[in-house]
Amino acid sequence: MRVLAISGSLRDASNSTALLRAVREEAPEGVEVLLWDGLKEIPPYDHDDDVVPAPAAAAAFRELVREVDAIFFATPEYNSSIPGALKNALDWGSRPLATSAFRNKPVAVISSSAGAFGGVWAAAELRKVLGAMGARVAEAELSVGHAHEKLDEHGRLVDDDVRQGLREALETLLAEISLVDVAA
Ligand SMILES: Cc1cc2nc3c(=O)[nH]c(=O)nc-3n(C[C@H](O)[C@H](O)[C@H](O)COP(=O)(O)O)c2cc1C
Asked: Which domains are present in the chain?
């Protein structure tokens, strides 16, 4: 099984990306977690450019989403919402609406922030957007507050409770894949 891990942050020392590296460490046998680093390459969504063939980076993103069994998102919170770059990639991924790569795709969302609330509004927004796109939003919920305090200087997760929360979120997502398989 292949799970695509998408961080909503572009910066090298991102807490969100660090949490996804920890998710990868927690993957059970037979589950491959692929960390996607193509977010910055996606051009701004322009309906006039959304033709066949689509811009290469957007087409590659859609193809990758189609190929994987599920997607695990970790997003920071920007102004009580999700970062624009992430929303932009999702806008590309959402088209054409009826047959998009995200339709019926199992997805899980976690969030983090430097503040106390862990980006709960961003997580809620991301779940809303993914639901509107027709993805299957798994019931996983984890918002990591003061995220920088839970990572060491190398960006490695050192908090057992958060690690357990990540493991549970991944398990919930993997269970959602099984539900899709049964329905298919
Ligand atoms: C443009 C911008 C807006 C932000 N808005 C919020 C916010 O609304 N709520 C919050 O908790 N943190 C906010 N932050 C702080 C981020 O949560 C914090 O920088 C976080 O570590 C970014 O995630 P990353 O480590 O994955 O890059 C904001 C940061 C930036 C750069």
From this structure: 2-183 (3.40.50.360)
